């Protein structure tokens, strides 16, 4: 009896201890699970049903659920299995889902496009393309489909007719794809007119662009894969915009007016289908013109506005038309120092500056009932909020909770799906009204990491040498002891358009950083001057001197770390990729001895090897800025290396080509400096998929081993 009682007590105590214990987070789970099993729960693929207060979302990406503002108890409409049966399809999920009207929706897998009616429970195949089709662009009104094959453009009409738009046999002429290496906000190359009667498309002539060789080591013998890569100061692509008229079967072309290798960007159609607006940016990227062209003839009509800046201009948003019956438009400009909204008539006269924010406007979401909705940081640059403004300039904030928000607007503009997270909240889905008041709280995700040993991220700030406020993030282990001395891994990017620290779940950090903290490290990040979402004055300080003020701010971060009693200032490591790889290596060479270990992935090592579109914006051309290029080149500082440095590169990187790292390795050999190098065969600019576990294991084990 006594023995039984003792056993019972032991079992209870063991249960209590086991219940209180938390699971160790593995590096593989941290790398592969952040956007899988640890991704906060939300209403996936939320969509408003047109002309109703109903909405749909996906459950497990396999079931289409429907509810309404008045009745939020969702019911299943159909499963993916039922949809496949009705369509005689093999869809894995509701990919490409979009409502056509109150009862019908579209889905596609990129090659096969379907419509389905939820009332009669029937659907049909609209388009069926072969595997060679790419860049598919669907027009909702006509159900025409534009796409590319190799370097040419085609249209598949809703009636099944295939139309050949371009027939260029010269591989140097590329049509229908993104141009300018996807800079200036360019993400695609096909643009339907509002009524679907015409198709505009980008075309680039790469005849004068140098071929760059990448090695396919999977072949026996290995084969060279040639890409076009215009390096800074070298010959670049020559762009055009083609406009194909379906009725006349004719194409007209628009070329740059101020220089043949200028950039054509921010293409938009006017609501009346008669005109195309295009922003032309000069090669030096210090001047642009917003021009109007006749869509039928391609003739230049007029310049609506132009801007210049002695550092750079960077239009990234096409004209927005708030009224479907007017060609008056809203333009996003950074001329005040921050992106703001300006309302112009179609003659180019400024009607009204709609916003005068001293914070960054990010993008326009849409218009409802005379109000334009747009995303912006708001007063806190770590957040993403949604504001509205009417055409008289009356501004309102829609999102009230702190954090990072995304919004879906109902067709009547009465309701908004607000999905957001912040530093303390994994994810919430609310329905709010036009005043920003909560109508319904639909979902709040639990913390899916609650049962794992995971530390904390502290968001703070330091002051740069010029007095600028810089935001910081410090990740500590779950068993942090302020009486201990901890080594630190500094994670850095530091370049334009990037913001590593945000008021969002996990503080914007990758989950592997929390794993690293559990290994007895502090993981620190500072968003230096030159990084994104802080306005032109903050970002443009890097002009003609990349790697200078950024490093100054990173060293200010180091000074802050060394002021903390629990930091071991003799065991500092730094890691970053791409611009962060450039920063990592720069810190190891231009501030030698500060960091004991560095791991640089895909680094820019000399800006003369980098692409013209990005490199010339920030550094000008090599002949225009020889001293700046020499100072920023890591070849110039290779002899200064102290400590351990690991360089990593994907062997078929087509963004930061491998020549960057190979040239630096060669320079290290020449000056007699030892370092480590690791290639990832057949990977591009970053290491994706399951191999990313290998990458992060390589990076972090190197830091831990070399930073003892």
Brief overview:
Helices cover 17% and strands 35% of the residues. The protein has 708 residues and is of the alpha+beta class.
Outline the fold blueprint:
Elements (H helix, E strand, L loop, with lengths): L1 H19 L6 H7 L10 E5 L5 E6 L3 E6 L6 E5 H8 L10 E2 L4 E5 L3 E6 L4 E7 L4 E6 L6 E5 L2 E5 L5 E3 L8 E3 L14 E3 L5 E8 L5 E6 L6 E6 L9 E8 L4 E5 L8 E7 L5 E7 L5 E8 L5 E9 L20 E5 L6 E5 L5 E4 L7 E8 L2 E6 L8 E6 L4 E3 L6 E6 L5 E7 L6 E6 L4 E7 L11 E8 L5 E8 L9 E6 L19 H8 L3 E5 L9 H4 L9 H15 L3 E11 L1 H12 L6 E5 L10 H8 L6 H7 L11 E7 L8 H13 L4 E5 L10 H16 L2
Helix pairs in contact: 2-4, 2-11
Shape: globular
**Separation of termini?**
54 Å
The major β-sheet equals: 8 strands, mixed
CATH architecture of the domain at 456-706: 3-Layer(aba) Sandwich
Provide the CATH topology of the domain at 456-706: Rossmann fold
- Our count of helices gives 11
Q: What is the structural class?
A: alpha+beta
Low-confidence stretches: 1-19
Average of per-residue pLDDT values: 96
Radius of gyration, Cα only, in angstroms? 27 Å
